[in-house]
Design brief:
Layout: E1 2-7, E2 13-21, H1 23-29, E3 43-51, E4 57-59, H2 68-79, E5 82-84
Parallel strand pairs: 4-5
Antiparallel strand pairs: 1-2, 2-3
Length: 119
């Protein structure tokens, strides 16, 4: 269903998570897109805890879940967690030359950002 990341706090762990939903359970139990009352799809959340000063590389799940492409890139861009084997390992939201990872709790925003010529 989704992939994301978060920071447990300055000096704490960085976390990458996947929220998985069993699609077969949905198709078997749904009629016309409506779940029967009291029924819920089978779900699991996987979390990988990483030391911010250690190796921030984990395997990509792009080969299994193509939707992880931009989600893993966003997690890299905002937290610095790298995904080994990802086909497009580059920034998604910030400029390529941006220093640091803005969603980390210990991130210090620069006083200015020097714009480069577009040509």
């Amino acid at each position: 269903q989704c992939q994301g990341g978060y920071d447990e706090g300055a000096g704490g762990l960085l976390v990458s998570f996947y929220h998985l939903v069993k699609l077969a359970a949905l198709s078997d139990r749904c009629t016309a897109g409506v779940m029967p009352p009291g029924e819920a799809p089978e779900e699991v959340r996987i979390k990988v805890f990483l030391e911010r000063d250690g190796d921030l590389t984990i395997p990509t799940l792009y080969g299994l879940f193509r939707g992880a492409d931009w989600q893993e890139r966003e997690t890299f861009d905002m937290y610095g967690i790298q995904f080994a084997g990802h086909p497009h390992p580059k920034r998604l939201l910030m400029p390529e030359d941006w220093k640091g990872f803005p969603m980390r709790k210990d991130y210090v925003q620069p006083d200015f950002y020097e714009m480069q010529d577009a040509y």
